[in-house]
Design a protein that fits this description.
Elements (H helix, E strand, L loop, with lengths): L13 E6 L7 H14 L3 E5 L2 H6 L3 E3 L27 H13 L4 E6 L1 H12 L3 E6 L15 H22 L2 E6 L6 H9 L4 E3 L8 H13 L5 E6 L5 H12 L3 E5 L11 H19 L5 E6 L2 E6 H6 L6 H10 L2
Parallel strand pairs: 1-2, 1-4, 4-5, 5-10, 6-8, 6-9, 7-8
Antiparallel strand pairs: 2-3, 10-11
Helix pairs in contact: 1-9, 5-6, 7-8
């Protein structure tokens, strides 16, 4: 990690904080940590509402300790979030940097996923110091083993799938349950194992051969199994049409359940609150030391940081052993 120390004249005096992209349980814990860590170091904090869009619109508020009281248990983000097409253009990035200078923001902590990090890189390109904190339920940021919100989302999905299994068993149905994750299959894989699913469909490993699933259902029925659970990742989708085809091919009543945005909401788990708090404090510390263009990460039991460009260039894939175990346990 390359660091530089600010002189007293140029040290960080005001930190801006925003949340961007999809919301994730635990974002508020990270906001709280940034605010209180910065104020504890004598640094002012400006909250930017609605992500990069709010930055361009100058929706900026002063934040004090009491502003982050009683938020750690809340889902979503008190600062709000939004997509911003304008910020993707150079003109928007120049304007954002000018807004930061106007409000005397010396450095930014941006909380979100890979799109948020690209925004941070753009800010750095315009002379604004920035640090990224990984917050996405998809767990698809390669440099880190943990992203804020995943633990809550996967537990929310697991509990919902348990309930669907109960009714699927009662009616002797096949249930296709679609979980979120964009193009990553981590929520599907974890729920597939935790919920004892018979089939797990994830973008990283699925060959789109539905006949394999059909054959599996028929074979299980011959063994006396009366219901069947399929966990389908968002990156594959089409659960409703898949259900119709499977029912037609097997004669087994088949229903699709799409869990949707419920996975983004709810009170964050202890793990999400704790890890988000440490990551927020860590981001504030390294920013105050003059380190910029970094992303906070958790690897091998430690909180560390990477160059944002290096982090975005990393590739992440499903662990082969974990996937093989999931297939073995489903038999």
């Amino acid at each position: 990690m390359i660091e530089r120390e600010y002189s007293n004249e140029h040290r960080i005096k005001t930190i801006g904080i925003l949340t961007s992209g999809g919301d994730a349980p635990g974002m508020n814990a990270a906001i709280r940590a940034v605010v209180r860590k910065a104020l504890g170091n004598g640094i002012k904090v400006k909250g930017i509402k609605k992500g990069y869009q709010g930055l361009l619109n100058e929706e900026i508020i002063d934040m004090e300790r009491h502003d982050v009281s009683d938020i750690i248990q809340r889902g979503g983000t008190i600062l709000g979030t939004a997509r911003c097409a304008e910020f993707r253009e150079l003109e928007g990035q120049i304007k954002a940097a000018e807004v930061c200078r106007k409000h005397k923001i010396d450095g930014m902590v941006v909380i979100g996923g890979d799109g948020t990090y690209r925004g941070a890189i753009d800010l750095v390109g315009q002379g604004v110091n920035a640090i990224g904190v990984p917050a996405t339920i998809d767990l698809d940021i390669a440099c880190t083993e943990y992203t804020i919100g995943f633990d809550t989302a996967v537990n929310t999905a697991m509990e919902a799938i348990d309930k669907v299994r109960d009714t699927s068993s009662s009616h002797e149905r096949c249930s296709i349950i679609e979980v979120m994750g964009r193009n990553a299959g981590y929520i599907a894989l974890w729920c597939g194992v935790a919920n004892g699913a018979e089939d797990i469909l994830i973008p990283e490993n699925y060959d789109f051969n539905e006949q394999t699933i059909i054959n599996n259902i028929i074979a299980n029925r011959k063994k006396g199994k009366t219901h069947h659970i399929i966990i389908n990742a968002e990156g594959i989708g089409h659960s409703t049409s898949m259900a119709r085809r499977i029912e037609a091919a097997t004669g087994m009543e088949t229903r699709a359940t799409i869990l949707g945005y419920m996975q983004r909401g709810g009170s964050p788990t202890c793990k999400d609150r704790f890890y988000a708090s440490i990551m927020g404090a860590y981001a504030t510390d390294i920013l105050c030391r003059g380190v910029t263009n970094r992303v906070v990460a958790y690897r091998h039991g430690e909180f560390i940081d990477f160059d944002i460009k290096e982090a975005l260039a990393m590739q992440k894939k499903i662990n082969d052993y974990q996937f093989e175990v999931s297939r073995l346990l489903s038999q």
